[in-house]
Amino acid sequence: MLFLDHSIVYIYTMSTILLAIESSCDDTSVAVLRNGQILSNVVANQKIHESYGGVVPELASRAHMENIVPVVDQALKVAKIEKNELSAIAFTRGPGLLGSLFVGVSFAKAFALGLNIPMIEVNHMQAHVLAHFIDDPKPEFPFLCLTVSGGHTQIVKVLSYFEMEVIGETLDDAAGEAFDKAAKIMGLPYPGGPLIDKYATDGKSEAFTFSKPDIANLDFSFSGIKTSFLYFLRDEAKKNTNFVEENKADICASIQKTIIDVLMDKLVLAAKQTGICHVGIAGGVSANSLLRKEVERVGKELNWKVFIPKFEYCTDNAAMIAMAGYYKFKNKKFANQDITPMARYKM
Ligand code: KG4
Ligand code: ZN
Question: Which of 89, 99, 159, 198 meets the CB 3.0–4.6 Å disulfide criterion with 163?
């Protein structure tokens, strides 16, 4: 006769269904995950910042407040999941803009309390790295991840899902900030990174040169490039007021190449120094077409196994928060109701 322990049957047949919330900067995003598979990933962009040349924190938190309920509803609808099926709520605790984080954290707390389910706090920068585990093929530990976004530029030695060591980072501006500031100097709207990428397609990257930082270790610096770019355009504009308009593609291709070269040089050095050959890129700037090409090209030359997330998992998204939340859920790493957001949050 076969006896079944019903509690065990229950555990093994029950799905893990997570709702994840990302609100660290200017994108309100909600994802639903079932057993490690992303069922939906809805992102509401905030167009309001375009004309200000950067994210305005007060406007960002107000827009999150308006967006959060419809984005949650849409994510559940796309995933065909009812609220009462959720196992837990994952959310970004930081780093990010405090007002923006507050909206996501407060919503997660209320939702978890109302549904009587646990909460999982997620570090946004760890989540960018864990975006590599959304789809196959997945990297093996240890691997290196170049995480490049609007707020961060890091080379991370990833030892396990939650053991990550930052072995190089920027001393001043982030790579995405360098792209956005260069675009702003050219008179392009925020965020300028994707526009520089787009205009660069028709340009010659060797047309203009800008001074690069001279740092021996794995750290980065982008403020010198920005100054060199600013002075160059200012001097050229004195001679020809239409200089930027007439040379847009070449300027974009040249500044893009300068920034990507700096990133690639350090990534190559990090791989040499650590002997690690599984290498990934993550964060908003990993959507850049030249960076994606260069990692593939250099990776082939140096026998790396290269990992590049899909475009939608490079820029800020809740799917990566769901993925990070899933690994924490499996380890029962839950947060308390008294948790608060952290603008600065080391990984
Ligand atoms: O990771 P992310 O979406 O948000 C932050 O956590 O900061 O990154 C946003 C950054 C912005 O600076 C944006 O200009 C840059 O990523 N970015 C790009 C591209 N797409 C987004 N930079 C260069 N080329 C792109 N295609
Ligand atoms: Zn980010």
Answer: 159
